[in-house]
Each structure stands twice: as C-alpha cells, then as structure tokens.
Specification:
Elements: H1 2-8, H2 12-22, H3 25-31, H4 45-48, E1 66-68, H5 77-93, E2 96-100, H6 106-120, H7 124-128, E3 139-142, E4 157-164, H8 178-202, H9 209-212, E5 219-226, E6 236-241, E7 247-252, E8 258-262, E9 265-268, E10 276-280, H10 282-287, E11 297-300, E12 308-315, E13 325-326, E14 344-345, H11 346-356
Parallel strand pairs: 1-2
Antiparallel strand pairs: 2-10, 3-4, 4-5, 5-12, 6-11, 7-10, 7-12, 8-9, 8-11, 13-14
C-alpha cells in the first residue's frame, strides 16, 4: 500500500518539465547543493548492476587495444600496415580502440577540454541563453536530448553543434569556446578521413572507398559535462547505447567512467594519456554487413569531486537532408554472406534513433532484413 502511494505521488511528467524549465541542467542541481538526486534520474537496479568479468573469465580479452598511428606518416608502409592490422582486429572484435600519435597536438586536446569546462561553468544566466530543445539550431545546450522519451534521465549536460559539412559561422558559437571548437573540429576531420582510409583497407577495399561514399562528410560535436553525483549508484552519466554514426572520435579527460559491453560483460576503458578513443558506429556496422561491430557502451555517474568532461565527434550528417542511400557494401556481400540490413538514409536512421532514445536496445534491429 505504502509503495503504491509513493509511486502514485510521483508526477514524472511534471518533474521532467520543471527540470527542463530551469534551463540550467544537472549543473544547476549541483549548484543548488542537492544531496539526493531527483526521481527522474533513478535507473532500474537491473540496469545499474555492474557485471564485470571475474579475474579468470575472459582474461584473454583484457581491454580495448591501443594503436599507434605513427603520427599519420603515410610513407612508412610498415607502420601503416601494423596500424591497419590492429584496427581490423579491434573493429571486428571490440568496435573500440584508442589511438596514440594521432597527429592532433596534446596542447589542442587540453584547450578543447578547457573550453568545454569553461562553457558549462559559466554563470547560469549566460548558459540559459543557449538552452533549447529546438534541434534545428546550429548550437544547442541542453540536458539529455531524450529527456522526455527515455526511461530515466542521465546525470549529464551537453552542448552540441554540427561542424560539417556546413561549417558554423563564428557568431553561431559562444565566444568562450568558439575558436577551439573550430580548430579542434578541423583536426578531427583530418584524422577521421585518415582513419576511414585505414578502415577501408582493413575491409580489403580501396583506401578512398569509405571517404568516397561520404562517411566523413558530416561531423556532429557533442561536448559533455558530468558533474559530481551525490548518489552515483542510482543513475548513469550516459546509459547503455551504441552510436548512430559511422565513426566516433572521443576526447576523454583523466576521470574514468566509460565502459564497453562485450559478451555480456562490462569492461572499463582505461585512461591512456594523450589518446583519443575511437569506436565503430551503427552505420558502419550496417554498411560492412556486421564485419565491423558497433558495441554498446555507457558512462558511470561521476564519483569524483570534480566534473568530468568529454568531447564526442560523430561522423554523420544526422537528421540533415542527405539523399544518399546506404546498405551493405556490394564488395562485402556474396551468396554465402547475404545482406543483413535493408537500405536506408542517414536521416531515416537518425530520426528513428533519436525518437527511440537511449533505451538500451540497438536501433540496428529495426533495419534488419
């Protein structure tokens, strides 16, 4: 009886609306000194359970590999060959890998993280000016893109901006992080095109194959801010999901929390100084006909005393108009390996993914033949 009374007294829709209308996100709650997180952030205990492999189980898997890109020097054929072999194995078995000597300066990585922190730690009045749920806006600051559709909210705020193919005008971006966003996205585009060359070769295709079919055409930048959480066992920083991109380049900070799910177990992604984390997205799994895998991952709620920041750059054109149709690449299918997915557009895929929200299921299932 008491449980029913408590459940019925919880006005979820009203609390979601009230939280959204503050326009200050999770940071606003932390600034207000909350010691208990609101019910809208509570995740079911079954989702929160942390099934990590026992020391003897899957010990051969260890953790996601780190691959040395050798400063992206194309002339060194042995380094390139080693990188391709490493990426092929990682993309087939993990869908995740870290890259070092990737050609993006460590100074720029630090400046980008500082820019994210500076934006989110501005005064609430300044942040409110950018807060919106109008996803057609060039620059968008909000908390939980799927706030009203997901089963539970995550302890995280985000600002997002489409950086390519249409580069934003300087006045579209907040002055506090404008220059570093522009410079960092340029460097990520260069790195992404290089990675798509290596991925093409890892598939046995011509180096330009994936770039020629516009896998590197669009870039969406999401800059996440994970404030310290007073009850980290009740919620997530980001709940279980896979990415609706071809490829994702993630810039993490030193506070760990990212986990990858493989064979039913969650594996921590360790901090590797100066590394960028790369993962295969759903769209690349679809066009490679499951040759490369888009694994589910999540971010635990932040237990540190300082906010955790990360910058995820997704190679996709998202919901923006793009007529190109994608299906399994012809060269990768045969009578023995028939297409496993129907053809779709990036926009159709992204629209379905966004409407579904981060509910712990893969959007790829909807596109299976």
């Amino acid at each position: 009886m008491e449980t029913t009374k408590i459940a019925s007294s919880f006005d979820r829709a009203g609390e979601l609306k009230a939280f959204d209308e503050t326009k200050t996100g999770v940071k606003g709650l932390v600034d207000a000194g909350v010691s208990q997180i609101p019910r809208i952030f509570h995740h079911p205990s079954v989702k929160l359970s942390n099934h990590k492999p026992l020391s003897s189980d899957l010990v051969h898997l260890k953790t996601i590999p780190t691959i040395d890109l050798g400063g992206r020097i194309v002339e060194d054929t042995s380094k390139r060959k080693n990188a391709i072999e490493g990426i092929k194995e990682a993309a087939e078995k993990w869908g995740f890998f870290q890259v070092i000597n990737h050609g993006v300066s460590l100074d720029l990585l630090e400046k980008m993280k500082d820019g994210v922190r500076d934006f989110h730690e501005q005064s609430p009045e300044v942040r409110k000016e950018f807060y919106s749920r109008d996803f057609s806006r060039r620059f968008l600051y909000s908390s939980n893109f799927d706030l009203f559709s997901s089963p539970a909210a995550n302890w995280r705020d985000t600002f997002s901006c489409t950086m390519a193919p249409d580069t934003p005008k300087p006045q579209d971006l907040p002055e506090i992080c404008r220059d570093v966003m522009m410079e960092y996205s340029k460097q990520v585009m260069i790195l992404g095109k290089f990675l798509f060359e290596l991925l093409s070769e890892a598939l046995g295709l011509e180096p330009n194959h994936l770039n020629n079919i516009d896998c590197s055409k669009g870039l969406l930048m999401l800059s996440h801010y994970y404030p310290p959480c007073p009850e980290p066992d009740l919620t997530f920083g980001t709940s279980q999901h896979s990415d609706n991109s071809f490829l994702t380049v993630l810039l993490p900070d030193q506070i760990e929390g990212l986990q990858v799910r493989r064979e039913g177990y969650w594996f921590d992604v360790p901090h590797v100084p100066g590394a960028l984390i790369i993962n295969i997205g759903d769209l690349l799994q679809l066009i490679t006909n499951d040759k490369f895998i888009s694994l589910e991952h999540r971010v635990l709620a932040n237990r540190a005393t300082r906010a955790r920041v990360s910058v995820a750059c997704f190679f996709t054109t998202g919901v923006r108009p793009n007529p190109r149709v994608y299906g399994p690449i012809r060269e990768l299918v045969s009578e023995e390996n028939l297409p496993k997915y129907r053809e779709t557009t990036i926009r159709e895929y992204a629209t379905y993914y966004n409407a579904k929200g981060l509910d712990g299921t893969s959007a790829l299932l909807h596109f299976k033949i």
